[in-house]
Structure formats: C-alpha cells, structure tokens
C-alpha cells in the first residue's frame, strides 16, 4: 500500500479537534499498539477489556506520526499529530475504508445477517455467482475467499482493517461481487460502518449471544443497525415468516422486499417434496430440484434467489444453477454408513437451529427408523440456552446423547448438568450422558440400525475442540468417517 496524506485520510471522519499539522504522509494505519512502526497512523480504540488510549505515549515513542483518539493525552509528543474524535471505533471504520481506497464502492457487496443461515446463504451466493460466470469474494465464519484464493477465517466478520483489506484484494482480483456475513457483534462494534452495501438479507432471529448483548431487545437492535445503515440505492430482503422480519426494515432507506414459505411475499417458496438427499420446491411458481434438505434450507435458498434477482441476474439461469449448488461443509452434511444408517453433521448450536435440523430429519424419515441425536453446548457462553437445547433435542429424538462441545474454560460436566436440567421426565430413560465427544459419536453409531439417522450437532465445520484455552484437533465428520471405515 502506498503512502497517503493524513489530510486526505481524515476527510473521511468527523473531527472535533486537531493538535499538530495534517500536512504529512502516512505509511500504515493500525489500532494495535504492537504493530506501530515509524510513519504510521494509530487509532486508539476503547476495547471490551483494554483501552488503547493508555498506550499513546508508547506508540509515539515507537514512531507513530499521527494518532486518532477520543481523549488527548496529558503530554503531547513532539512530531505527533493528535486528531480528536467523538468515537474512535467509528473513525477506524471510515479510516480503514479510506486507507484501502473505499473498496466496497468498487464492487457489489451483499451482507447477510440473522441468527441462523448466515454462512449457508452467503456461501451459496458466492457459489451461485461463480456458476453464473461472475468473479466474487466471500467473507464467512468458515472461510474468506478472494475469487478462488482461500484464507482462513478467524471470526464471523473481520476487524475493520482486515475487512477492508480483504475487500480491496477482491477488487484487485477483479471481483464483481462480494458476499459477507454480518454478525451482531460487528454491528455494535461498527465494523461494517463506512462500507457501501448493494443489499442486505435477514434470515431469522432466535436466542443467541445474550452473554454479549444482555437482552433479546439489544440483540434485535444490533441486527437492525445493519438495515438502518443501508442506502437508498440498496435492497433489503427479509424473512417475513420471522416475527421480527418487518421490524428489521422499519427504518431502512433501502428498497424493501420479502420472502416467505407461509404467507404472501415478493419471493414465495413452496416445498413440494422433502428427501434426505434433497428437496423439490417452487419459487414464485417455478419448480426446482435442489440438493438440500429441510425447510430452513428452503428459506436460505429463497433468499439466495431473491438477492440474485435483485442483483440483476437472469432468473431462468439462476434457477438452473441453483439445482447445481451443494451444501456447505458442516451444514446438514449427510454421510451414509456401510451398515445402512445415515449420519448428519450440522453446526446447529442454538435451540432454534437444532429444532430446524431435527424437524427436517423427522420430516424426511416420516416415522421410519429412529432419530439419534448427539449434542452439547459451548462453555463461557449463554447458559440459559443449555436446558432449552436439551429439552428440544429430547422431544424430537428417539434417543439422545448429551456430550461435550467446546467447554472452553468451563468444566464440561457442569455444562452437561445444566443441559440435563431441561430434560422432560419421560425422556430421561432415552438419554445418555457421555462427556467424551468421540465416545458419544461412536456410541450413537453403534446404537443405529439400518434406516436410522444419527445427527451430530453443534460443531459442524469446526475442526477443533477448545478445552482450557487450547484448541485440540477434532472434526465430527472425520470421526464419523473413521467409524464408517471400521464398519466395512
């Protein structure tokens, strides 16, 4: 990245006061005091656990030539320009965009938000764009992709600078479109401020992240911030079967569109036949066969179709290409046992997502065979959902095995006791508690008979188990593949 004038950079932010000259060049922008090098601009952000304002003397000594901050330090360092703003986090978002030449204005960026379905929807839009012959980028929980180049993802929505750097790389690679998950954390932390979106999609909203947001209302408002920020030339597509769908867009300037499986909408889907290996459905009267199972996937695919049409893609071609899309890794990932039962790996880690997956399986099983569910809950997260998860799983499963997920810094047995408290009395005899996840999966497969379905929920694409701050390699689909190999 070439040098940029400080004077030009700060035109992108609301400045309260400046100490020093703005007639100087900047060779880098950072909010990490450890990355400060001579010639850079440092943005002092107040984080959840650390306030970077305390590092202002050190960054000046390290060679920062300019600082953006909310409070000026008691002692101003010679040669450093101090730019005071009301909110340095918001300033960082706009500075990051300006530093990387406003990449979101050079491609069509679509954001996907909601509790469940973000990864699937964003990934399928990226895959559909490729099938349609467009170059595209993806920013998701699972991976970031610049055209065809894959980068590992560290969080659902990257930090301000990484996000704009990835979008800039997409522009440089010639991408026409970019599709990204927009988390509630990212909205509250202003990580998507300063970006120009061509459109936004709302999937659904259920209980999640209350350890961070505190209340459901705060969680709803965090999601709504995204739609409030959309411009008048953007589109907003919302699931109106969700009770807060219309709430999301009540203050948006974007053009509003709806999608639904149950009521009248701009994009109406009807499921004709559900199978373990796919679904036959219609969208606005046109029939399509897809390689996805469950009504939750019908919602995802309808929103994908809606966004594609609103982006101006050919409707008939979109329908043809949708039939070629394949499920995202760890999202209702189906595996067939040599002994004649089916195993499904899914990321479902909220009560609603788990209900969706279990109901989809029960629907295609149609009373034939037994549904065996393996699930757990993560540590150091919303404890209130633990008994709910266990109860919902027990009510929809023939047999249930509660096991460890990512215990993080909690005792896994404590988490399992929280889950066990939610079990209905008449379901306790059909429930096993096996702390060791590998053994739990193995036991489920040993119990399964031909025609049964084993669902392993909670981790999906994750290839690790986090215990006491250490990530140990663990992949549900790998474990199942090993079990299947031994069955031959």
Spatial ordering of strands, largest sheet: 11-10-9-12-8-13-14-15-16-17-18
The low-confidence parts are 209-213
Residues in helices, as a percent range: 25-40%
Strand content: 15-25%
Instruction: Write down how many β-strands occur, each being a DSSP E stretch of 2 or more residues.
Output: 26
SS field, number of helical segments: 16
Structural class given helices, strands, pairing? Answer: alpha/beta
What is the typical, i.e. mean, pLDDT?
94
Q: Which geometry do the CA atoms define?
A: globular
End-to-end CA span = 55 Å
Q: Sheet with the most strands?
A: 11 strands, mixed
- Rg estimate, integer Å: 24 Å
Would you kindly provide a written description of the structure presented here, covering whatever features stand out?
By secondary structure, the chain is of the alpha/beta class. It contains 16 helices and 26 strands. The strands form five sheets. It has an eleven-stranded mixed β-sheet, with helices on both faces. The termini are far apart. The model is unreliable at 209-213 (pLDDT under 50).
Please specify the SSE layout and strand pairing.
Blueprint: E1 4-5, H1 6-9, E2 17-19, E3 25-26, E4 28-30, E5 40-43, H2 56-61, E6 66-69, E7 81-84, H3 88-99, E8 108-113, H4 118-131, E9 136-139, E10 143-146, E11 149-152, H5 160-172, E12 177-181, H6 184-188, E13 199-202, H7 210-213, H8 216-228, E14 235-239, H9 245-248, E15 255-260, E16 267-275, E17 278-283, E18 286-290, H10 295-310, H11 315-322, E19 333-336, E20 342-346, H12 351-365, E21 371-375, H13 385-396, E22 399-402, H14 412-420, E23 431-433, H15 437-447, E24 453-457, E25 464-467, E26 470-473, H16 476-487
Parallel strand pairs: 4-5, 5-6, 6-7, 8-12, 8-13, 9-12, 13-14, 14-15, 15-16, 20-24, 21-22, 21-24, 22-23
Antiparallel strand pairs: 1-3, 2-7, 9-10, 10-11, 16-17, 17-18, 19-20, 25-26
Helix pairs in contact: 3-5, 4-10, 10-11, 12-13, 13-14, 15-16
């Amino acid at each position: 990245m070439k040098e940029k004038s400080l004077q030009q950079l700060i035109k992108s932010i609301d400045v309260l006061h400046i100490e020093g000259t703005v007639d100087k060049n900047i060779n880098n922008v950072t909010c990490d005091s450890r990355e400060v090098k001579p010639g850079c601009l440092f943005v002092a952000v107040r984080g959840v656990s650390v306030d970077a304002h305390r590092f202002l003397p050190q960054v000046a000594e390290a060679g920062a030539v300019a600082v953006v901050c909310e409070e000026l330090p008691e002692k101003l360092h010679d040669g450093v320009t101090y730019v005071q703003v009301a909110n340095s986090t918001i300033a960082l978002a706009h500075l990051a965009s300006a530093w990387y030449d406003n990449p979101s204005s050079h491609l069509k960026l679509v954001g996907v938000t909601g509790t469940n379905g973000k990864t699937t929807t964003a990934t399928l839009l990226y895959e559909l764009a490729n099938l349609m012959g467009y170059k595209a980028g993806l920013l998701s929980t699972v991976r970031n992709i610049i055209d065809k180049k894959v980068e590992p993802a560290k969080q659902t929505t990257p930090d301000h600078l990484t996000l704009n750097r990835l979008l800039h790389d997409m522009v440089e690679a010639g991408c026409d479109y970019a599709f990204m998950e927009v988390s509630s954390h990212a909205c509250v932390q202003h990580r998507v401020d300063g970006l120009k979106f061509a459109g936004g999609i709302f999937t659904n909203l259920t209980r999640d992240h209350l350890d961070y947001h505190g209340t459901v209302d705060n969680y709803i408002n965090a999601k709504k911030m995204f739609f409030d920020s959309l411009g008048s030339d953007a589109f907003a597509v919302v699931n109106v079967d969700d009770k807060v769908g219309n709430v999301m867009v009540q203050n948006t300037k974007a053009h509003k569109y709806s999608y639904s499986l149950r009521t009248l909408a701009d994009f109406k889907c009807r499921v004709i036949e559900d199978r373990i290996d796919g679904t036959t459905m219609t969208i606005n009267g046109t029939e399509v066969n897809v390689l996805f199972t469950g009504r939750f996937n019908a919602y995802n695919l309808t929103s994908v179709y809606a966004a594609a049409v609103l982006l101006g893609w050919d409707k008939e071609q979109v329908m043809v290409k949708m039939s070629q899309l394949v499920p995202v890794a760890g999202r209702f990932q189906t595996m067939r046992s040599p002994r004649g039962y089916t195993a499904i790996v899914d990321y479902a880690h909220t009560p609603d997502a788990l209900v969706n997956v279990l109901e989809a399986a029960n629907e295609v099983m149609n009373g034939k065979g037994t549904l065996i569910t393996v699930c757990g809950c993560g540590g150091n997260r919303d404890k209130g959902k633990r008994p709910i998860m266990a109860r919902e799983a027990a009510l929809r499963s023939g047999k249930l095995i509660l096991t460890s997920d990512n215990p993080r810094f909690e005792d896994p047995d404590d988490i399992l006791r929280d889950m066990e408290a939610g079990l209905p009395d008449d379901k306790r005899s059909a429930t096993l508690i096996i702390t060791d996840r590998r053994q739990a999966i193995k036991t489920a497969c040993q119990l399964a008979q031909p025609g049964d379905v084993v669902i392993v929920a909670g981790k999906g694409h994750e290839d690790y188990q986090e215990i006491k701050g250490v990530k140990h390699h663990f992949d549900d689909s790998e474990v199942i593949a090993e079990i299947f190999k031994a069955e031959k």
